[in-house]
Amino acid sequence: MSSLSVADLRKRILYRGSPALVWFTLVVLLVVFSAMAPGLFTSKVNISNILSDASILIVLAVAATLILAVGDFDLSIGAVLVFSGILGAKVMIAWDGGVGTGIALGLVVCLVSGAACGALSGALVAYARIPSIITTLGVMGLLTGASNLITGGVDLRGLPPELTRNIGNRSFGDVVSLPTIVAFVVAIIVAVIIRSTVFGRNTLALGSNAEALRRVGVDVRFHRMKVFALAGMCYGLAGFLSLAKYSTTTIAGHSNDMLQAYTAAILGGSSPFGGVVTVVGTVVGVFIPTTLQNGFVVLGIDPFWQQVAVGGVLLVAVFVQTYRKNQR
Amino acid sequence: MILTEPLLEVRDLEVTFGHIQALRGASLTVGKHEIVGLVGDNGAGKSTLVKAISGVRPADSGQIYVEGAPATLGSPAASRDLGIEVVYQDLALASHLDSVENLFLGRQLRRGGVLRALGFVDRAEMRRVATETFVTLKMTVKDLSTPVGDLSGGQRQAVAVARAAHWAERLIIMDEPTAALGPVQTEQVGKMIRRVREHGLSVLVVSHDLPQVLDICDRVVVFRHGLAVASVASGDIGVRDLVDLMSGAEAADEEEL
Ligand SMILES: Nc1ncnc2c1ncn2[C@@H]1O[C@H](COP(=O)(O)OP(=O)(O)OP(=O)(O)O)[C@@H](O)[C@H]1O
Ligand SMILES: [Mg+2]
C-alpha cells in the first residue's frame, strides 16, 4: 500500500517535471544562505548583486532554451558573446561622433555579429547536417581564436564611460538594474514567441519530430538556421550587456557561461532531447548558479565550489529528464 | 477498368536507393471518388511510391499527372498544394504536441489584425475546428490537449487520419492506416475511408489486411518488386488470388510449365 503511494508520488513529481524541482532547489538555497548569513545575504545591496549577476546569464539561458527546443546544443555561447562584444567595443572605441550614437552603433554591431555567428552555426547544422555539438565546438574554437587575434589576448579598454554609467550600472530603486530589466524583457519576448507564434510552435515541432514538420511542407532547415541566428543575437546582446557592466571586454571570463546557461535551462524543465521547453523554468533555473555563487562569496567559501555544485546540480537535472523520458 | 475519370496518374516511376531499385517503372491510376487498394509483399515498394507522390522522396524518373495536368512533385509543399494529403506509415506526428497542434502542424491558424502579421496563432479557433473535424469523422480523441505521445496507438492513428482528411482537397493516401489498430478501430478507419469518399475525395490505401482491402476498396493494385503487376476490381478477385499475385506464384507456375 504505502510503497504504491510512494511510487505514485515519485512518478507524479517526475512527471510534473523539474519546474517543481527548480523552485524547490531555489527556495532551499535562499533559506539556507539567509539562515547562514542573515544580514548580509538578504541585504538590498546583495539582492541587487544577485539580480545583476543573473541578468546576462538570463539572456544566455533563454537563448540556450531556444536551441534546446529544436533538440540541439550550442557550445559557442561564451565565444560568440566575447567575439561580438569585441566587435562592438572596437566600434564604440573608434567612434568619434556623439556618444549616444556610438553606443547605439555598438549595440547594433553586437546584435548583428551575434546573429551572424548563430546563423553560421545554424547553417552548418541544418544544411551540412553536422551534429550541433561538433559544429558549435568548431565555431567556438574559430571565434575564440579570432577574438584573441583581434585583441592580442588583451582586453580592450577605453569604452565610453557613459556606457557603464547610463546602461550597465543604471539602477532603479537601488535594486533593479537596467541590464536586469533588459534580461526579463528578453525572457518575456522569447516566452511569448515560443508559446503563441507560428515560429515558436514550429520550433517545438521541429525539436519533437523534424521529419513530420518537413512532410507538412515547412522548410525545416531554414527554420533551424533561424533559431540558431536568433539565439546568436541573444549572445550578442549579452556581449553588449557585458561591456556595459564591466566597461571592458572580458575575453577570459566566459568559458563557464555555456555550462551555466544549459544548467539553468535543463534544471528549469526544458528537455535536452527537444520539443519541450519552459522559459519561466529557465529564468528560475538561472538563479540557482547565481545564488550559489553569491552565497559562497558571502559565506567566504572558495567560489570554485560553485562550479562543482553547478555541475552536480546539472547531472541531477539531466537524470530527472532522462528518467522522465524513459517513463514514457 | 478504372471506374471514373482519372484524378492521379503515375507513370513509369523509378526510385533507386544505392543498389536497391525500390521502384522499377511503377504505374498506377486513381480515379475521382475512387478508393484504390495498394497491396504487395514487404519491400515491394509501396511506401516508396507513397513518398514519391507526396514529394517526401521524389522519384528519379517518371511522370505524374493530376487531373490530366503534368505535376512536378519535388517537395511535400508541392503535393500539398495540389490537394494531396498522406497518412504516413510512421504517422509523422510531433509527439510532444497535442492533437490540435498536430492537426494544424505547419499550417496553424492565425489571429486577426496586427497579431496576424506578428504570427500569433489562434489557439481557440484551432481547437474549435479540430473538435469539429473529429466530430464530423466520428472519431473520439479523448483529450485534445494531451501530447499525442501519451495517446494510445489507435488514437494517434486517428489524429493522423483526421489531419489528412481535414486538409485534403483531392486525394488521401494512407500507408497502412490500420497496422497498429485493434479490430474495432480498424472497422472505424474503414468507415472513415468511405465517409471521406462521400465528401468527394479519392483514397489510396496501402494495406496488408487483404480482406479489409477487398471490403472497402473499389479496385486493388498489386505491387511486386517495384512494379504494378495487376489492377483488378475488388469484386473480381479473392484473397487467395491476391496472395498469388503478390508472391509471384503465378509467374513461377508459368515458368515451370
Ligand atoms: N531510405 C531508404 N534507403 C535505402 N533503401 C530503402 C529506403 N527506403 C526503402 N528502401 C528499400 O526500398 C525497398 C522498398 O521499400 P518500401 O518501404 O517501399 O516497401 P513497402 O512495400 O512499403 O514494404 P512494407 O510492406 O514492409 O512497408 C525495400 O527494399 C527497402 O529496403
Ligand atoms: Mg511500407
Question: Could you characterize the architecture of this molecule?
Answer:
The complex is a heterodimer of chains A (328) and B (257). By secondary structure, chain A is mainly alpha-helical. Chain A has a single domain, classed as Orthogonal Bundle (ABC transporter involved in vitamin B12 uptake, BtuC). Chain A is 79% helix and 1% strand. Chain A has helices at residues 2-16, 18-36, 38-41, 44-69, 77-94, 99-126, 132-151, 161-168, 178-196, 198-215, 220-246, 257-267, 279-299, 304-327, and strands at residues 171-172, 176-177. A two-stranded antiparallel ribbon of chain A has the order 1-2. In chain A, strand 1 and strand 2 form a beta hairpin. In chain A, helix 4 (44-69) runs parallel beside helix 9 (178-196) and helix 12 (257-267) packs parallel to helix 14. The longest helix of chain A has 28 residues, at 99-126. The radius of gyration of chain A is 20 Å and the shape is globular. Chain B is α/β, with parallel strands linked by helices. Chain B has two domains: 1-83 and 171-257, 3-Layer(aba) Sandwich (Rossmann fold), CATH 3.40.50; 95-167, no CATH class. Helix content of chain B is 37%, strand content 25%. In chain B, the strands form two sheets. A six-stranded mixed sheet of chain B has the order 6-7-8-3-9-10, with helices on both faces. A four-stranded antiparallel sheet of chain B has the order 2-1-4-5, covered by helices on one side. In chain B, strand 9 (219-224) and strand 10 (227-233) form a beta hairpin. Chain B is globular and about 60 Å long. The mean pLDDT of chain B is 90. The A-B interface holds A 196-199, 201-202, 204-205, 207-209, 211-218, 275-276, 328 and B 54, 56, 75-77, 80, 86, 88, 92-97, 101, 105-108, 110, 118-121, 123, 149-150. The structure holds adenosine-5'-triphosphate (ATP) and magnesium ion (MG). Chain B: This is Simple sugar transport system ATP-binding protein. Chain B: Residues 8-250 form the ABC transporter domain. Chain B: Keywords: ATP-binding, Nucleotide-binding, Sugar transport, Transport. Chain B: Pfam families: ABC_tran. Chain B: InterPro entries: AAA+_ATPase, ABC_carbohydrate_import_ATPase, ABC_transporter-like_ATP-bd, ABC_transporter-like_CS, P-loop_NTPase.
